[in-house]
Amino acid sequence: AQSVTQPDIHITVSEGASLELRCNYSYGATPYLFWYVQSPGQGLQLLLKYFSGDTLVQGIKGFEAEFKRSQSSFNLRKPSVHWSDAAEYFCAVGPRASGYALNFGKGTSLLVTP
Amino acid sequence: EAQVTQNPRYLITVTGKKLTVTCSQNMNHEYMSWYRQDPGLGLRQIYYSMNVEVTDKGDVPEGYKVSRKEKRNFPLILESPSPNQTSLYFCASSTGQGRQPQHFGDGTRLSIL
Questions:
Q1: What is the pLDDT along chain A (114 residues), one digit of tens a residue?
Q2: What is the least distance, in Å, from the CA of B1 to any CA of chain A?
Q3: Taking CB atoms and an 8 Å cut-off, how many pairs form between chains A and B?
């Protein structure tokens, strides 16, 4: 069965510290992979995506993610967190075949402390 | 400005009273979809549409209907709402490349009493 797991429901980091949000997936084949961010009261914004090629993907707002096929993981990282990064983060996977069904993880809530 | 516009943003209604949540995008995107977001469950896809007159079920389609008569509009219809449809709903759109949702609306919070 297809699934996306974000093991951490909540994460707290200090402003300026590095960040890594974990995402693991279970899929029949290598899917398309995405990270989204949701600020309070707003819709989701696409941070970055992986389709193929270089396994280290750069996104907006200084985020990057690394696809590791052997670990079925697509972890999101940022070297130095800003207070404005506090939000909910969602990992999502989608099939390479035709269709338009994305599976989302349950999200990780990021709290940034001064 | 690229936008996905949902209306209403908030709605409180009663069981069984038909309602429609509208969604409109101004980017000429082929793909549109509806999601519901519930605490602890993340986002789950309700329906999606790959183009005009082409729709298909997502993961949780029961109790919902959609239509895609025009490219820009993708309304979500609850014919007989029930309390378990109380949720936060998002409409999203994208171009053909990758097909992932590129633009989300700001959400519609529905409360069914």
A1: 678 999 999 999 999 999 999 999 998 777 889 999 999 888 888 899 898 889 999 999 999 999 999 999 999 999 999 999 999 999 998 876 655 567 889 999 999 999
A2: 15
A3: 59
